[in-house]
């Protein structure tokens, strides 16, 4: 391992160790509704809207007592369906198979208008299109979630199947460091994470996006149908407060960066890197597709959901009949 890849490995390790779960189990202050909110596995600057809405008092002013938990996506979807977590940030591609298996969850607000899951590789690897993945080693956290669906979609677009590549699993989410160290040829990741960090470390990358193949739904807010019935007003207030914080960060990104560092102090060790990740995240929130950039934050494109549902059904990832109306509901968004 040379010095540059050693530095990059340290960067990814720092990200992975950026703190344990933020917050404790929710207990309501008199006059407020307690909500437990599930975010992604690793506390991150990507969750800045939630941190800012909490610190700026948006949740408090909405009559909410919010605490955060960090979970991997499949666990989070199940816990939301069970009512153990009130609201979660989860991939639409995880929601579709879950609902088809009878888990009572719905997608209530879009956070990432662009699908952030990608395959990335060092430019020197010569991976410029999906067909170039044939026979290559590809790092992935596991055969689940958005990264797994995205990878299958990319491979399918080139007439390939997972058996045509060598899948190397990194349950500890170490696939980014594996790419930097040359242990794999490419890996799944997020457009606003690993490629940004590699670029800052001086490693040029190529990125394969799935958007041109199928408009897979990006991560958004989900809640259980029973939770919505019992806490509908609180869920609606939470969505409104979170989108308000997103708007603040789009206008002044430093507000989000400051809030993330307050919530996860280790992120302050490299403010420039975290700022670059946040800038890429904001672009994903706003969307880069035709017309999507002007769409209101949080809005749900039901036509894209219908296309995604059909595509995932074609891959055999939908266990039973399910409709778009069962998957999404827009009535909790601000009018």
Question: How does this model look, in words?
Answer:
It is a single chain. The protein is of the alpha/beta class. It has two domains: 17-114 and 217-327, Periplasmic binding protein-like II (D-Maltodextrin-Binding Protein, domain 2, 3-Layer(aba) Sandwich), CATH 3.40.190; 116-208, D-Maltodextrin-Binding Protein, domain 2 (3-Layer(aba) Sandwich). The chain has helices at residues 3-16, 48-55, 58-61, 73-82, 92-100, 145-157, 175-181, 194-200, 225-251, 253-263, 271-286, 302-314, 324-327, and strands at 33-39, 64-70, 87-90, 105-110, 117-122, 137-140, 166-169, 186-190, 205-208, 220-224. Helix 2 crosses helix 10 (253-263). The chain is globular. Mean pLDDT is 88; it is low at 1-26.
Count the helices. How many? 13
Largest β sheet strand count, sense and barrel closure = 5 strands, mixed
Low-confidence stretches: 1-26
Query: What helical percentage do the residues reach?
Result: 40-55%
């Amino acid at each position: 391992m040379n010095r540059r890849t050693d530095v990059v490995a340290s960067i990814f390790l720092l990200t992975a160790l950026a703190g344990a779960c933020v917050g404790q189990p929710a207990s309501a202050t008199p006059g407020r509704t307690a909500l437990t909110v599930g975010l992604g596995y690793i506390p991150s600057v990507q969750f800045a809207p939630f941190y800012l809405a909490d610190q700026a008092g948006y949740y408090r002013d909405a009559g909410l007592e919010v605490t955060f938990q960090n979970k991997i996506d499949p666990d989070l979807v199940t816990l939301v369906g069970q009512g153990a977590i009130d609201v979660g940030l989860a991939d639409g591609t995880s929601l579709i198979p879950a609902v088809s298996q009878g888990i009572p969850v719905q997608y209530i607000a879009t956070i990432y208008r662009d699908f952030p899951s990608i395959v990335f590789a060092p430019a020197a690897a010569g991976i410029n299109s999906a067909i170039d993945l044939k026979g290559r080693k590809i790092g992935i956290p596991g055969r689940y979630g958005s990264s797994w669906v995205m990878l299958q979609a990319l491979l399918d677009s080139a007439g390939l199947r997972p058996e045509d590549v060598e899948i190397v699993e990194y349950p500890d989410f170490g696939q980014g460091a594996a790419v930097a160290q040359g242990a794999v040829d490419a890996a799944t990741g997020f457009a606003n994470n690993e490629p940004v960090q590699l670029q800052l470390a001086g490693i040029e990358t190529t990125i394969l996006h799935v958007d041109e193949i199928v408009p897979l739904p990006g991560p958004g807010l989900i809640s259980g149908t029973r939770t919505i019935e019992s806490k509908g007003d609180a869920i609606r207030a939470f969505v409104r407060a979170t989108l308000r914080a997103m708007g603040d960060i789009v206008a002044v990104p430093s507000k989000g960066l400051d809030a993330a560092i307050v919530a996860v102090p280790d992120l302050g060790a490299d403010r420039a890197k975290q700022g670059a990740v946040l800038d890429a995240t904001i672009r994903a929130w706003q969307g880069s597709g035709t017309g999507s950039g002007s769409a209101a934050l949080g809005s749900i494109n039901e036509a894209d959901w219908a296309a995604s549902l059909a595509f995932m059904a074609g891959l055999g990832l939908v266990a039973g009949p399910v409709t778009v109306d069962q998957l999404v509901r827009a009535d909790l968004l601000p009018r």
